Amino acid sequence: MNFSELFKLSGLLCRFSPDGKCLASCVQHRLVVRDVSSLQVLQIYTCLDQIQFIEWSSDSLFVLCAMYKRGIVQVWSLEQPDWHCKIDEGSAGLVASCWSPDGRHILNTTEFHLRITVWSLCTKSVSYIKYPKACQQGVAFTKDGHYVAVAERRDCKDFISIFVCSNWQLLRHFDTETQDLFGIEWAPNGCVLAAWDSCLEYKLLLYSLDGRLLSSYCAYEWPLGIKSVAWSPSSQFLAIGSFDEKVRILNHVTWKMITEFEHPATIASKKTVVYKEVEKSPSAETETLSFSPTRVLASSAFSTQSKYEISQVPISLQYIKPVADRANPKMGVGMLAFSADNCFLATKNDNIPNTVWIWDIRKLKLLVVLEQLCTIQCFQWDPRQPRLALCTGNSRVYLWSPAGCVAVQVPGEGDFQIVSLSWHSSGDSMVLLSKDNFCVCYLEREEV
């Protein structure tokens, strides 16, 4: 495993291009585009204000930079560096911006969610979508890019509109049986749309492309309800993380629950492998390191190293009792992710913040528990193989695969606290992000 040097960064804005050839990052009001293989700077674009959001077009030819404070979006071309586009929403303001799947239209959401404006880069035409709902996940495109679903709120009722992306014509418009629609997400095959209520009401609804209600699901009534939702890549399973510290798996045939995964504070099953991170002081045995020990020890200033040990069960995990009288209590399953091959599901229960749970979807049972020393900040699956990367706000990156797991210290001067990470589409590298810097981590194909 090799690491690049550290580069400056603002706002955790660093993205690989969809074709995997470029890496875009932001430093204040500048957009820097690098070649992924050499990390040489290809282009530097200067925006009108500090950049708050960036996104690549689907064909990797354009980069969108949004400056919400100014109500402005600027678009830059990689093929024609002199060409640029500026969209000014004026007094309407701007709270969100994104590309359409064709990479030639931009959807801007105005302040107070009065409307979504669809701008065409080709014809300079403008379309409007009225009454978009102010919710966490209110716009969802199908994976093939043919359709977009928009959550709407009008006359104190929730609706969903489905538009054809080629001409922005309305395909279907229907009301939902929700009190306060919180999010929508298409299945990867584009056949089913999941819509779920806010945490005050446990309700998940599944709609077909033509707006028919296929099924509704409610696990319980009065306590706080749904916290997170994730489709499996094959569209066969829908995982629902709830405030009661459980994950429920629905199947795609009957849309009924096939199992539920609990997250207890004590692991008792001998069939579950528990990897516990332990710190060890740097020893004199530095010659066993595969890279230059002088560089590592000098850069980490004799910092403690860490490794994984297999714990004997039963084992008690660090459990934090949530503060009941605060908004957004730290409880329930807040993070969910399926592996690319559909075989594994990784979860995090916010009551047990230092632990990642990995479930075997083929056997529908708990396979591995990773107990870290610090709170899990982010985890993400390799897009090509069952390999999970995670970070905990320190200068180490952690990898798990069915072969085992490893903790790797990022060599570098200063305190590089990794709070987010993102895989390259090839699975051969990933970008590690701290508040002010980023570096690229290169992996060998056979590495754990």
Automatic annotation (TrEMBL):
One of its GO terms (cellular component) is MWP complex. InterPro entries: Centrosome-WD_assoc (IPR052778), WD40/YVTN_repeat-like_dom_sf (IPR015943), WD40_repeat_dom_sf (IPR036322), WD40_rpt (IPR001680). The lineage of its organism: Eukaryota, Metazoa, Chordata, Craniata, Vertebrata. Gene3D superfamilies: YVTN repeat-like/Quinoprotein amine dehydrogenase. This is WRP73 protein. PANTHER family: WD REPEAT PROTEIN 8-RELATED, WD REPEAT-CONTAINING PROTEIN WRAP73. Pfam families: WD40. It comes from the Eukaryota.
